[in-house]
Amino acid sequence: MRKRGTWRWDAAGADIDMDNEFEGALRIRGNQAFLDIEAKPNSKKPGLLGFEPWRKRFIVAVRAPPEKGKANKEVCETLSEVLGVKGVSIETGHTSHQKTAVIDLTDGDGERIALILKGYKVAKK
Predict the structure, then answer these.
(1) Which CATH architecture has domain 25-118?
(2) Helical H runs in 3-124?
(3) What is the biggest distance separating any 2 CA atoms in the chain, rounded to whole angstroms?
(4) Which of 18, 63, 102, 125 is the most buried (most CB within 10 A)?
(5) Which residues 6+ apart lie within 8 Å of 55 measured at CB?
(6) Residue 7 in contact with residue 17, Cβ under 8 Å?
(7) If you ran DSSP here, which 8-state letter would residue 72 be given?
(8) 117: left (phi over 0), alpha (psi -120 to 50) or beta
(9) Which helix (H) or strand (E) holds 12?
(10) Could you state, in order of their start, the residue ranges of all structural domains in the chain?
C-alpha cells in the first residue's frame, strides 16, 4: 500500500517514485556537485523549469541565443540564482543542449541544493 504523498502521476500517466525521481542527475563528490541539465536557449520564460525523467536532466531555460557562449553564461547565472551559490560552471556539453554543470560547494550546500531541486516537479512539455 502506498503512503499518501510519496507517489504522483506524471503527464503520461506513469508512476514516478518521488524518492528516486532525480536519481543520477545530481552527484556530489567532495566539495563539488555535478548537475545534469538540458539547456533551452531563446526561451520566453527563463529559469529552472523542472526535471525531464526520460533524459534524467533538469531543464534550464534561458533567453540568450546559443552563440559565442552566451547561453552557457546565462545557464550558469540562472543556476547560481536558483540554487543560491556563487561558483557554477559548465563541465561538459559546451556546444550541446545536454550539459553537466559543476557547482562549488561550501559546508551544507549539498543537502540544501538537493532539497531545492526536490521541490521542482517533472517538466511539462
Answers:
(1) 2-Layer Sandwich (3.30)
(2) 70-83, 109-118
(3) 52
(4) 102
(5) 38, 98
(6) yes
(7) H
(8) alpha
(9) none
(10) 25-118
Q: What is the mean pLDDT of residues 98-111?
A: 89
The sign one gets for the Cα dihedral 66, 60, 40, 32 is positive
How many Å apart are CA 21 and CA 63, to the nearest integer? 27
Q: What is the C-alpha to C-alpha distance for residues 2 and 51, in angstroms, rounded to an integer?
A: 23
Is the separation of the CB atoms in 64 and 71 below 8 Å? yes
Q: What are the pLDDT digits (tens) for 1-55?
A: 333 333 333 334 333 343 456 778 888 888 899 999 999 999 999 999 999 888 8
Crossing angle of the two packed helices 109-118 and 70-83, in degrees rounded to 10: 100
CA-based nearest residue to 123, from 43, 57, 25: 57
- The string of pLDDT tens digits covering residues 62-97 is 999 999 999 999 999 999 999 999 899 999 999 999
Strands 57-61 and 32-40: parallel
Phi and psi (nearest 5°) for 23?
-55, 125
